[in-house]
Amino acid sequence: MSIRPLALTPGEPAGIGPDLVLQVAAKGGHPPFVTLADIGLLAQRRDMLGVAVELREWVRGDRVESHPGVLNYLPVALTAPVHSGVPDPANAQAQLDALNLAVDGCLDGTFSALVTGPMQKSVINEAGIPFSGHTEYLAERAGGFPVMMLATGKLRVGLVTTHLPLRQVADAITADRLRTVIEVMHTDLVERFGILSPRIAVLGLNPHAGETGHLGREEIDIIHPVLETLRQRGMKLSGPLPADTAFTPTVLAEVDAVLAMYHDQGLPVLKFAGFGQAVNITLGLPIIRTSVDHGTALSLAGTGKADSGSLQAAIAMAASLAGPH
Q1: Which pTM value belongs to this model?
Q2: Are 204 and 239 a contacting pair, CB within 8 Å?
């Protein structure tokens, strides 16, 4: 195991992120990580949950051991007191500060990968900070061309577009964007997942993949030509496939990943298959980043009822992708 720990940001302080971090630390058995968070918040939530966790401040360069009941943290101070379940825009910047420290640490080699807890996008925006999500923010900070992919078990689903209003999706699917997304997905499946010749199923945008142009021409004018060009370069791409039949066992048995055109085309299927155990992975960045597959669950914060399964899976996936160093 690498002596470089993972960096873990809990996300929204009023949500379940801090709870999940403490629950994982209490159980132990995870790859070494350091959480970037406010010590007061961690202590407050620890007492609310009644978990026996020692909070140990981490000094850069120190080796991180993974022991049950020990949570290594790097302090990032919040501005306002935290009330579980009640987000405060005053604490928005501190969340981004933690994220920035984690990204910088990944870029300079302090951390081997980044694992993120859920953030409340609306609260960040209410603080006057434009924010559409982790994926886009990380690309601005670290560079690269981000592609969102979620995975559970053997099912991997990538997205051509992410957090867009539905009426903007079709205009966002250009030949250049589609080609770049497929190239990024193919490269990371090879280099990070070790799949030497990835097979990717590409969905159509319209019902029945456009029904030969009767239900839309995006498949004919954009998707099919891009796939043909990339096939000539040796990529194993099927499609454009109708989304309503692409997730059958027969189709999935023949592919390593599925590329959906928009958020709610592919992710409902994946989350039905593995909600609470799935991992969000950002491809195309110079750093490794994984995340949970759920939101802040404000009503569960501080109750002890939150399930840490997805965070555990995200930590394990980040460590696997980072590999030995």
Answers
A1: 0.91
A2: yes
Q: What is the pLDDT of residues 161-192, one digit of tens each?
A: 998 999 999 999 999 999 999 999 999 999 99
CB atoms near residue 253 (< 10 Å): 8
Instruction: Please report the domains of the chain, with CATH numbers, ordered by start residue.
Output: 1-144+286-325 (3.40.718.10), 145-284 (3.40.718.10)
Q: What's the CA gap between 75 and 80, in Å, rounded?
A: 15
Rg (CA), the chain: 20
The Cα 95–Cα 218 span in angstroms is 39
In this structure, what are the phi and psi dihedrals at residue 226, rounded to the nearest 5 degrees? -65, -45
Rounded distance, CA 72 to CA 70, Å?
7
Tokens 């799949």 belong to: 195
pLDDT for residue 1 is more than 60: no
In tens, the pLDDT along 271-323 reads 999 887 899 999 999 999 999 989 999 999 999 999 999 999 999 999 999 98
Chain centroid offset of residue 106 CA: 16
Q: Which of 236, 151, 144 is nearest to 184 (CA)?
A: 144
Alpha carbons 158 and 227: distance in angstroms, whole number? 16
Count other Cβ atoms within 10 Å, centred on residue 74. 22
Closest CA to 182 of 135, 233, 218: 233
Q: What does the longest C-alpha to C-alpha distance in the chain come to?
A: 63
DSSP state of 63: P
Coil, strand or helix at 315: helix
Other CB atoms within a 10 A radius of the CB of residue 8 amount to 33
**Rounded CA separation 159/148 (Å):** 6
If we measure between CA atoms, which residue out of 291, 287, 282 comes closest to residue 314?
291
